[in-house]
């Protein structure tokens, strides 16, 4: 298989050399036509959608730039530290570009400080959680520059997730539209240049992370741990305000495309780093025989039911959402333990028709309706169960607070904790 020079095969020296030849100027971009197009060619809905997306982009670039400086001290090799220094310069330029665009074209603020303040209201719950974690982990790296596991976690979040999974779909979705219509030429030029910068950054991150993960089991475990933690937040980054899909549909994009694109990026990067996507809890629940867009559509059903994507929302669980959750639950269940329970396990929902799981022909099956002679019965609301199923809530706490009640023989009850591990 041939790879591009920016692919995972590129050495740190190659990546540095590529930076030298691909310089561009954010201050030289002419936004005069863009300002006219912004006012005349886009409608209100599109201006709101673009502001929402590029406000997060501006904050994102700032968050990445902050996370990079402790990485320079922590980088084991000189070539890595040199590349990271070039990346700081790139992020500064990206910031100048986005700041100019938001002020000179979209009319937000009158200087860099007031511009970033003006766009603060567009940040989603998932975005805020993800970037708070990036700040926390890079602060930890600043304190412990020799800790390879913390370095691996910082790269795993900064380069692979924020840059590789979140930034690239974010860049694409409006870019495709403006290119088709031949509008916003300054914006398109800048975004094209940013996309090339990002490819280099992600190639660097993939390489260093693959090396760290291959060299140490601790680094590997630390990377899986941080990805497991941030995945529910990542799902929330592109959830539009009030779940209003017109934020993206006005640019001839569907949310399923954005989420499918992000999911594909995530699994590709994980595989390149040497970690199987099925090692992540949320991805293990997924039916990976489906296409990325089909999987994205199922994710969005859970988002719309308030189960994932914004932990401030209480779930309103639909039949469709329960079907997806139970399918995932059966995939995660340990067959031997389920068999040892000695009969069907029933979820007697307080606000929904019951569901049950049974072991049949060596695999676990979930079905709507009552099981009849169940060995275990879980009495809980569908919303509380949904939260437990996606690890938003702790089942032990639900038991203690009696939001979850378990009925059955003590031997069957004793297997419950093991069942969901
Ligand atoms: Fe970047």
The ligands found in this model are: fe (ii) ion
Sheet-strand content, in percent, reads 5-15%
Percent helix range: 55-70%
Q: What structural class do you assign from the helix and strand content?
A: alpha+beta
Whole-number average pLDDT? 92
Question: Would you kindly provide a written description of the structure presented here, covering whatever features stand out?
Answer:
The structure is a single chain. By secondary structure, the chain is an alpha+beta fold. It has two domains: 12-304, Ribonucleotide Reductase, subunit A (Orthogonal Bundle); 332-419, SCP2 sterol-binding domain (Nonspecific Lipid-transfer Protein, Chain A, 2-Layer Sandwich), CATH 3.30.1050. It is built from 19 helices and five strands. It has a five-stranded mixed beta sheet. Helix 3 (44-74) runs parallel beside helix 6. Residues 1-6 have low confidence and may be disordered. The structure holds fe (ii) ion (FE2). Fe (ii) ion binds at residues 64, 91, 163, 197-198, 201.
Summarize the structure.
This protein has 421 residues and is α+β, with helices and mostly antiparallel strands. The protein has helices at residues 12-21, 32-40, 44-74, 78-105, 112-119, 125-143, 148-181, 185-215, 217-237, 246-249, 255-273, 281-285, 292-304, 319-332, 335-340, 382-389, 395-400, 410-414, 416-419; strands at residues 345-349, 355-360, 363-368, 376-380, 405-408.
Features:
binds fe (ii) ion, alpha+beta, disordered N terminus, 2 domains, globular, single chain, Ribonucleotide Reductase, subunit A
List the topology elements.
Blueprint: H1 12-21, H2 32-40, H3 44-74, H4 78-105, H5 112-119, H6 125-143, H7 148-181, H8 185-215, H9 217-237, H10 246-249, H11 255-273, H12 281-285, H13 292-304, H14 319-332, H15 335-340, E1 345-349, E2 355-360, E3 363-368, E4 376-380, H16 382-389, H17 395-400, E5 405-408, H18 410-414, H19 416-419
Parallel strand pairs: 1-4
Antiparallel strand pairs: 1-2, 2-3, 4-5
Helix pairs in contact: 1-4, 1-8, 3-4, 3-6, 3-7, 4-8, 6-7, 6-9, 7-8, 7-9, 7-11, 8-9, 11-13
Bound molecules: fe (ii) ion.
């Amino acid at each position: 298989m041939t790879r591009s020079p920016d692919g995972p095969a590129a050495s740190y020296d190659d990546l540095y050399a590529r930076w030298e030849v691909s310089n561009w100027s954010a201050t030289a971009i002419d936004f005069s036509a863009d300002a006219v197009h912004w006012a005349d060619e886009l409608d209100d809905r599109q201006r709101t959608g673009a502001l929402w997306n590029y406000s997060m982009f501006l904050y994102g670039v700032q968050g990445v730039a902050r996370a990079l400086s402790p990485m320079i001290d922590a980088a084991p090799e000189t070539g890595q530290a040199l590349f990271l220094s070039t990346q700081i310069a790139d992020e500064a330029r990206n910031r100048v570009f986005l700041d100019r665009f938001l002020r000179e074209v979209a009319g937000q603020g009158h200087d860099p400080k007031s511009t970033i303040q003006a766009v603060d209201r567009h940040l989603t719950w998932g975005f805020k959680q993800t970037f708070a974690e990036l700040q926390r982990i890079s602060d930890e790296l600043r304190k412990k520059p020799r800790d390879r596991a913390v370095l691996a976690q910082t790269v795993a979040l900064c380069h692979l997730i924020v840059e590789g999974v979140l930034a690239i779909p974010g860049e694409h979705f409006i870019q495709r539209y403006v290119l088709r219509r031949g509008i916003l030429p300054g914006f398109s030029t800048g975004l094209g240049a940013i996309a090339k910068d990002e490819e280099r950054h992600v190639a660097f991150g993939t390489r260093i992370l693959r090396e760290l993960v291959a060299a140490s089991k601790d680094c590997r475990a630390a990377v899986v741990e941080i990805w497991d933690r941030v995945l529910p937040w990542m799902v929330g980054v592109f959830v539009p305000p009030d779940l209003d899909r017109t934020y993206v549909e006005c640019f001839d994009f569907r949310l399923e495309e954005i989420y499918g694109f992000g999911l594909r990026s995530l699994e590709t990067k994980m595989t390149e780093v040497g970690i199987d996507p099925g090692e992540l809890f949320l991805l293990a629940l997924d039916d990976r025989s489906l296409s990325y867009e089909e999987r994205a559509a199922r994710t969005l059903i859970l988002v719309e039911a308030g189960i994932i994507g914004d932990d401030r929302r209480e779930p309103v669980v639909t039949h469709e959402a329960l079907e997806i959750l139970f399918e995932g639950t059966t995939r995660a269940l340990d067959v031997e333990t389920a068999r040892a329970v000695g009969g069907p396990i029933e979820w007697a929902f307080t606000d929904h028709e019951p569901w049950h799981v049974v072991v049949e022909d060596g695999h676990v099956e979930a079905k709507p309706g009552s099981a009849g002679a169940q060995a275990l019965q879980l009495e809980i609301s569908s919303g509380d169960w949904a939260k437990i199923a996606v690890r938003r809530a702790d089942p032990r706490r639900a038991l203690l607070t009696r939001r979850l009640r378990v009925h059955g023989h003590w031997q069957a009850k004793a297997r419950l904790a093991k069942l969901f591990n």
